[in-house]
Predict the structure.
Amino acid sequence: MTTAMRYLAALLAALALPAGAADSQPAAAGSTAFCLFALPPDNATQRLINLGIVQYVDLRADEVRIYFGGGNLGSGHEARIPVRSRDEADAVLARLRTAAARCAQSTTGATP
């Protein structure tokens, strides 16, 4: 498991929000280096982000912001997921946690 994935898993586990609705595209088990999470389509373009490079997540009553792929001098990116309430933002975070946990599972039964 990469350091970024451990950090994300620890961050999401620390929030300990209840699991919400299942992902529309579940992540494959055993792939912490390439753990895809589908964002809502934007103008008929389906976009997926790699959870292995997420730096942090902002939850707001009107949107969830996922910051990822950052380097020096603000070279990172953000994905914005519009929501209607804080409860809906919590549900998005729960789906992120579920996807990250699924990716962290070993496909061989061995612990990572």
